[in-house]
Amino acid sequence: MEMSFEESLAELEGIVEKLEKGQLSLDESLMLFEKGIKLVRECNDRLKNAQQKVEQLIEENGELRTEKFEVEE
Amino acid sequence: MVFEEKGIYTVHEFTLAVKSILTSGTFNDVWIRGEISNFTNHSSGHRYFTLKDKSSSLQCVMFKWYGKNMGFELEHGMKVLVLGDLDVYEQRGVYQLKVRAIRPDGIGELYKAFEQLKNKLAMEGLFSPEHKKPLPRYPKKIGVATSPTGVVLHDILTVIKRRYPVSLLFIPTIVQGEYAAQSIVSSISALNKTDVDVIIMGRGGGSIEDLWAFNEEVVARAIFNSRIPIISAVGHETDYTIADFVADVRAPTPSAAAELAVPDRAELANHVSRLGDRLIENQRRSIREGLSNLSELTAGVEPRVLMERIADNMQYIDEITQRQILSLKRILEARKSLFNAHAGKLDAVSPLGTLLRGYSITLKLPEETLVRSIGDVKKKDELSIIVNDGKIKCKVNDKEVCTWK
């Protein structure tokens, strides 16, 4: 399952902290570094690609449905 | 005109005739402004009062099913707006207003009602911090309950789009007037059935009457019971409504509510890129450290270094040997001086010393036995007399007993 931005960011923060504490073998730190860089890219992509989607919630005969809501600029 | 021509009503028939005219529709659903007097809160739960102004009065009854969500209590002299339908009370032949709703009228009355409800809900704990739900830091979808017209929605959309474009679910909500409270309640309840993770509930500024729906008890309870955290943004910064007290977070304006609801994308991007920098810097450092560690180790196994180490060891061995020789010498010296001391002592008790002082030692030959008594020798025995510097050979000529002591 894809991680949410929140989860990705939290993991990235954890990795940076762990690396900065040191006490890792070079192999371990390289592995974490690679993962961290991947997360940085993911977080950035997600921030860049965030889109505002506006929907309208309509209640009809006790049923809820949504439809696209046009925003006039 | 006599009664034979017109016919005769019974009282009841007459009352019914009047009633049918009065309740035909003209006086249904009317709002009337007046002041409460003769108020009786009957044990049955129905409220009876007279609505009056300077010149007239009107009998009113509010049955308990209409009055149960009123949010404030009637008081003598209170200025109110009542909504009701005209009716005739047949038993007494009087007309009266069947009241369906009562609103405080005038700023003073509204504030009174506001204070009454605020105190009541505060006592119940609806404003307590422990009931405040935390807002999600990174919401995925934001529910917005406000009017489809007006700037509130526009402001919220604009701010969210600028800061952090997430999905929005807008539910058109009546925020002013008679149906506002019910509309707000049903919007909150509808949004609670969706996947939004925070709700912004707002309207623009206005008079206390305009904002009144947000001071109604049903709205307060709907906010309190919402599963999803609610940010209230009602009116201007200086306007406080009951909804603001119950909401999980109160925002001074709709734009501020939008800012509270989402993080700032630019700030987040900065944060992420700082984390990236830290990762890279850290990795550079750890590689630098690894390299310098490696070169230290390499230097340690170079031949020149090994030779140096061997030379060091050889020198050490020499030094140790030298120290051993020295200490052996010291031990020998010590023994020698001990020996000399003993030799000196030996000298003191040696017979040689006695010989030097003029004494001698006589030995009988050839056995070379020591002569201690005249009985040890006979005439003509050969003797050897040892003196300081040699031996004298001689024969025994005679012997004689002497007593020396």
How would you describe what is shown here?
The complex is a heterodimer of chains A (73) and B (405). With 73 residues, chain A is of the alpha+beta class. Chain A is 56% helix and 18% strand. Chain A has helices at residues 5-21, 26-49, and strands at residues 54-60, 63-68. Chain A has a two-stranded antiparallel sheet with strand order 1-2. In chain A, helix 1 (5-21) runs antiparallel to helix 2 (26-49). The longest helix of chain A has 24 residues, at 26-49. With 405 residues, chain B is of the alpha/beta class. Helices cover 43% and strands 22% of the residues of chain B. In chain B, a hairpin with a 4-residue loop joins strand 2 and strand 3. The mean pLDDT of chain B is 88. Classes of the chains: A alpha+beta (73), B alpha/beta (405). At the A-B interface, helix 1, helix 2 and strand 1 of A face helix 5, strand 7, helix 6 and helix 10 of B. Strand 1 of chain A pairs parallel with strand 7 of chain B, so a sheet runs across the interface.
Shape of chain A: elongated
Order of helices and strands of chain B: HHEEEHEEHEHEHEHEHEHHHHEEEE
Most extensive interface, residues per chain?
A: A-B, 34 and 38 residues
The number of E-state strands of chain A comes to 2
Determine the oligomeric state from the structure. Answer: heterodimer
Count up the helices of chain A.
Answer: 2
The first-to-last residue Cα distance of chain B is 208 Å
Q: Main sheet of chain A?
A: 2 strands, antiparallel
Layout of helices and strands:
The complex is a heterodimer of chains A (73) and B (405).
Chain A (H helix, E strand, L loop, with lengths): L4 H17 L4 H24 L4 E7 L2 E6 L5
Helix pairs in contact in A: 1-2
Chain B lengths: L2 H4 L4 H12 L7 E12 L5 E6 L4 E6 L1 H4 L11 E11 L4 E11 L2 H18 L16 E6 L4 H13 L3 E6 L7 H12 L6 E6 L13 H9 L4 E5 L7 H5 L2 E2 L3 H8 L3 H36 L2 H47 L1 H6 L4 E4 L4 E2 L11 E6 L2 E6 L10
Parallel strand pairs in B: 3-5, 6-7, 6-8, 8-9, 9-10
Antiparallel strand pairs in B: 1-2, 1-4, 2-3, 4-5, 11-12, 11-13, 13-14
Helix pairs in contact in B: 5-9, 6-7
